[in-house]
Structures are given as structure tokens and as C-alpha cells.
Amino acid sequence: MNNIRHFEIEIAELKRSLVGMGNLVEQSLSAAVDAILIPRVDAREEARVLEERLDSMDTAIEERAHRIMALQHPMISDLRLLISALHICSDLEQIGDLCESIAKRATWIAKHSPVENPKHLEELARLVKEMIHGCLEAFVSSNTELAKTVITQEDHSDDLTKLCYESIQASMARTPEKIREYTHLLRAVAHLEHIGDIAVAIAEESVYVHKGQMIRHHHEDLR
């Protein structure tokens, strides 16, 4: 097998591994969202199993990307892909950590007192799931318009997060005996917002890979 063919296979395998990790992250996020919307005591253990699989995939993808860069001397466009793959891999692993934390908080609530979810929590969760799916699809399909859509959704995510915070704070004032439960719920909402921010970062990487345009902190420059 010649070097060019071997390089193409390595790149294809790297992309395939990233897709697999992305799919597992979406599964982990869905489970975390379900858990915080209707808390249950086994949520944390299920999330831990998924997180261990994500950690293994993270390590394997990083090793493959580093090996390609060290041995294949990629051209600039492929080098952009490899650098972004490392960033995205790290982002996905972080999402897995956040999902596990959401599930942990859901388990704690389930073991204590039930609390009232904020009115906009379900909409925020749906939006964040949509953003994660969109940013991963944008990366895989080279769809910079979809990446742009994800980036523009950040403001709506921030607005919904603020509304959830206000609702939870009001609930804390009404039922101070449940303040610990509501504190866990507040942190879960913060994690969802953070996952939305990571979706934007992955969308930015997608634009960088496919257009060679660095737009982090400069979304107005997206052409």
C-alpha cells in the first residue's frame, strides 16, 4: 500500500472515530436531559458507564491524530483537520463530563425531595441537543451554513438559561427547605448552557476546517 493511500485510510478512520464519539455524546446528553427532567436514582451510574466509553474513545482518537501528524507530514488542509479533530475530541470529552455531572445531580434530587422544574428547562434542553447535533453534522458534512445556524442559536440558549435561573431562584425563595435540591438543579442548568457553548466552539472548528477561516470571537466575519 502506498503512502498516499495509507494516509487517506488513516484520515477516514479518524473521521469515523469522531462520528462514533459524537454519537455517543448525543446518547449521553439525551440520557442526562431525561434524568434532570424526571430525576431517577440510577441516572448517575448509567452516565458513568457512558463516560468511561467516551474517555477511551478520546484517548484512541488523540493517539491516532498524533500518529498521523508525526508520520504522515500532512498538507495544510489536512493539518487543519487534524488540529480541529483534537480540539473537537477534547470538547466531546468535556460534554461527557458535564452530562455525568447533570446525571449525578439528578440522582441526588431523586434521593431527596422532588422539586418543580423551571418552565423553560425542557425548551433549553431541546435547544442544546439540537445545537450539539447540528455542530457535529456541520463538521461531518462540511456544511458551514449549518455551523452558522448553531452559532446564532447561542443567544437563544443564553436567554433560556437566564429564564431558568430566575425561575429556580424564585422557587428557592418560596421553599427554602428545598434550597439544596434547587441548587443542584441550578448547576444542571448551568451545565446545559455550557454544553451549548461547546456546540458553538465545535461549529467554529467546522468553519475553520472547511473554509480555513478562524472566527472564534469574530462571528461577524463569517462569510
Report on the structure:
The protein is mainly α. It has one domain: Methane Monooxygenase Hydroxylase, Chain G, domain 1 (Up-down Bundle). Helix content is 83%, strand content 0%. The chain is elongated, with a radius of gyration of 19 Å. The relative contact order is 0.14. The model has no long low-confidence stretch (mean pLDDT 90).
CATH class: Mainly Alpha
**CATH A-level architecture:** Up-down Bundle
Mean residue pLDDT: 90
Radius of gyration (Å): 19 Å
- Helix and strand run: HHHHHHH
What structural class should be given to the helix and strand makeup? mainly alpha
Overall number of structural domains? 1
Gross geometry = elongated
The CATH homologous superfamily is termed Phosphate transport system protein phou homolog 2, domain 2
Quick one: biggest sheet? none
CATH fold name: Methane Monooxygenase Hydroxylase, Chain G, domain 1
Helix content: over 70%
Write the layout of secondary structure elements.
Layout: H1 3-37, H2 43-72, H3 76-111, H4 121-141, H5 144-152, H6 154-174, H7 179-211
Helix pairs in contact: 1-2, 1-3, 1-4, 2-3, 3-7, 4-5, 4-6, 4-7, 5-7, 6-7
Key traits:
single chain, 223 residues, mainly alpha, Methane Monooxygenase Hydroxylase, Chain G, domain 1, 7 helices, 83% helix
